[in-house]
Amino acid sequence: MKILKIKLKNIQSLQGEHEIDFTKPYFADNGLFLITGDTGSGKTSILDAITLALYSRTTRHGNETSEGLAENIMSRNTTDCYAEVTFEVNGKRYSSRWDTDRSFRGKIALENKVKTPAMFFQNLDNQEDNESKKSSVLKKVEELTKLDYEQFLRSVMLAQGDFTKFLRSKPAERAELLEKMTGTDIYREISKQAHQRNEHEKKQLENLKNKIQEISLFSAPELEQIKNEDLKLKNELVEIENNLKAITPQLQNLEMLKRLEKEILEYQERLKVLESEEKAFETKAEALFWHEKTHVFQSEWQALQKLGKEIKSAESEQESLENQQTELQTQFVSYQQIYENQKQELENYLAFKQKQETIIQEELIPLEVMLIEKNKTFENEENKFFKLKENYKHLLTEIQQEFEYEPAKSVEKCEENLKSTQKQLKEVIENLKINKKELWQTKFEEAQSKYLLFKELELRSQNIKNFEEELSIEKETFEREKEAFLQSEQDLQRIKTTIETTKQTILDLERLIRQAILIKNYEIERNALKEGENCPLCGATHHPYITHPPQNMLSDDEKRLDLAKSQLQDLERQERQNQTQVLANTLDNREKNIQQINVKIKSVFQEFEKQNIVIESIPNIILELQALMQQCKQELENYKNLENTFRKLEKQLKLVEKEQEIWVQKSQNEAFKQEVDALEAQKQSFFDGKSSQVILKEIKNTFDEIETQEKRAFLEFQQLQNELHKTNLILENTLKIKDTKQKESDELWRVLKPIIQQQGFASREDVESKILSQEIQEAYKQEQNRLLRNTIEVNSVLESKQKQSKELLEGLAEGISENSLKQEMEILKQKQSAKNQKLGEINQQLKTQEINSKKYQDQETLIIKQTEICERWKKLDKIIGSSDGKKFSEFAQSLTLQRLVGLANIHLSRLNRRYIIRKAEALENTKKIEEQALELEIIDREQADAIRPVESLSGGESFLVSLALALGLSDLASKNVKIDSLFIDEGFGTLDPNTLDMAIDALEALQNTGKTIGIISHVDALKERVKLQIKVEKKGGGVSTLKLPKIRH
């Protein structure tokens, strides 16, 4: 997690809008910066803006309400304020904002009240992932940073000052400080809860014992009397029930007799309706009769009908096939003629094709080959001609510019002038050679020897300069390598010291891991616990560690152990690579080289002194050489004039030769062009000038097209021939089937006719008219069956009802009436109701006795269980419980401090390799165990690992140790989150200059790991050391402003 930008407005004394952008180059290049200003100017307000924007809280205002916090945060005499932080997590950028303003009453006056602050969250890389609800914003921030408010304070706002107090405080104060810094107050609450739970469970047991006394039960005699009365009432009710059973059948018989008389009348009416329906059905019954007579010959008749349909179908198919046969015969004759025409056309074009191909192969193709070769030759000659013309133009332009040439001159004239000029040039050259020998041969040789001597002296002087430069380079290299040698020795010593420190750190981490493994062994059993069920160890039904488990220290310690081992390997490799002996040998070689160069310089200086006399005569020699050179220049000028004339004539001659070449080349090209034109004309006479390839392709395409048409015509003719043959076969087969079916039909009618007449049918048509369709037959049949079934059913029921009525009349006693029976039954029911009511009361008493008895037993069981629970909580209270929570809190703080010391030692090894922090070992008969558990000691590596109390540390040493503890707490609080932004608030004012330099060096080393570190301080020495500064300047009236960074050089 890294803070990229802070924006604020009207936060406490910082009135107006301010922005601190940590992405600016001066922050990117200088990860360590200082927030400085006078006391009370508002330096810490910048940190308040960070926690406001992220968590809507500040360290200086505790847990105030939102409105109260806003009122205290907003600058005086302002109407709105906000704090906004842009931060980065895993390469993605986010923004969180807190803001509020004052309400207006009317248009002028301000209410003395601030609105409820609002919060906004924005994903700067994904605009859909935004939040505007305060609870959602806080949840989102914690989800991304994996830090709640307290963890953020311990991870980002380093509590270095608190650790300084911690080191100097008494045991009781130390426990309180450690609890505040590490957030281990939960263990104090657990201790309190264990004690309170024990007291609660005791009260629960007392309540259960009191409740069991409140349950009332009957005595044994009382219970026996109630059961006897219950038995008596039940017997009386049985007798009443029997009397009721005797009266009830008689009443039921009277009622049934009335109902039967009514039903008999209804069924007599239904029987009359059925008789009228049967009379209406007589016509349908007759039709159904004749239809059923056809069942005798039904199968033969159906076969005859089927044959008739098949004969009709065959006649229809015969007609269709005969029409198709006529149509196909007509098409066959037409397609046969088309095929013959296509075949003849193909044979004719084949002869034409062969004739044309012969002409092309024997005449046109040889002509094309010859034409291609001639064109190629002509193009080459044309290219030569154009090149000659270009060369001629270029040469002509050159001569005209240099000599004012006139192209009309003849070749013979140019040659004559050229020969004359050559002769003159030769004579001048001979005269120049003779003059040189006569005029300055002797002086030239003398000057040449002295000039050579001068050059040699100049060379020696340059050698001296080179040797001096080489000597200077060797000396500089010697000094650098000497410094490197000394630095290498220091680095080697530092590496050895770091190796020892890292080895000790590895031992500490391995010890921490072993302790953490012991703690982790309880995680599996803890995860098996369920809320509301008793813990097998302590008996608790509430298990807070399931939802708020203790920090998993094992994985962090294992990672840090792996990191320490990796660092140890790197250090050992650096130790092997640090070859101080090689540097020492190099230094020896450099000293020898310097001595040799000094010898060379002395030798050259001695030689240079010997030649110094000759140097004095050099100015006279130079004057003589200058006079001689002037004479030579005049002679050379004459020579150049003759040479120019010669070059002019020579170029004129070349120009004339080029003109001749151009004329010859042009004549040859015209001859070639005539030959090419003749061949082109001859080719044009063949096929309108088309190429042989085009003609052959056209002939082939035409032939292929005619051949394809011929094949298509043949296939169509053949297909039609096959269809005609197939149709003839089908027609022949259809005629045979028709004749066969007709014979079968005639034979079947001959057999069936006597049977039909025997059943009373006059003819075939008579049968057809009296056969009903399947639907009509089924409808008639269903109606006939319904009438028959209903008649039988009504008669049967009517007879049964009449019989029952007769039997009931015979069974009734004489003189009995329905009213007398009803009065007697009413009296019996009243007695039965009274007895049942009394019996219900008794049953309720017995049921209450049973319930209370069950309650008593359950209460006894609960008392037994509660007694067991009380014993468990009593034991747990004895182990960890206390009314003030100190017992378990101090034990947990001891474990937390042990892990904090391990993490702090990793940072302390980078800050100062001399010291190692350790927890003091418990000693009997010295102090209380809880006091010793929070005691710290210092191992002094430079004093044979002597153990020193922290009180013996100097102010600067205490600062480094407390800073290491603060950084360790940051690692502890942030778990697996990488924190790249740290703020240290004060704590530097008590340091001497040397210790302050040591602290600054340590922080610079820390920021080199990629962290951005902000120091809040007003110490002047820090202002000199830290170049990058954010100044908080007072303006008066309790108002301050930010002056954003200016790099100091």
Describe the overall structure.
The protein is α/β, with parallel strands linked by helices and 1049 residues long. Among the domains are: 1-156 and 979-1049, 3-Layer(aba) Sandwich (Rossmann fold), CATH 3.40.50; 433-618, Helix Hairpins (Orthogonal Bundle). The chain is built from 27 helices and 15 strands. The strands form 3 sheets. Strands 1, 2, 4, 5, 6 and 7 form a 6-stranded antiparallel sheet that branches. A 6-stranded mixed sheet has the order 8-12-13-3-14-15. A hairpin with a 2-residue loop joins β4 (80-89) and β5. The longest helix has 110 residues, at 411-520. The two termini are 31 Å apart. Mean pLDDT is 76; it is low at 106-110.
Q: Outline, from the CA principal axes?
A: flat
Number of strands: 15
What is the CATH architecture assignment of the domain at 1-156 and 979-1049? 3-Layer(aba) Sandwich
Radius of gyration: 65 Å
**Helix content percent band:** over 70%
CATH fold-level assignment of the domain at 1-156 and 979-1049? Rossmann fold
Largest sheet: 6 strands, antiparallel
* Text of the CATH class of the domain at 1-156 and 979-1049: Alpha Beta
What is the overall pLDDT average? Answer: 76
Give the full name of the CATH homologous superfamily of the domain at 1-156 and 979-1049.
P-loop containing nucleotide triphosphate hydrolases
Overall structural class, as computed from helix and strand content, comes to alpha/beta
The tally of helices reads 27
First-last Cα distance: 31 Å
Low-confidence stretches: 106-110
Strand content: 5-15%
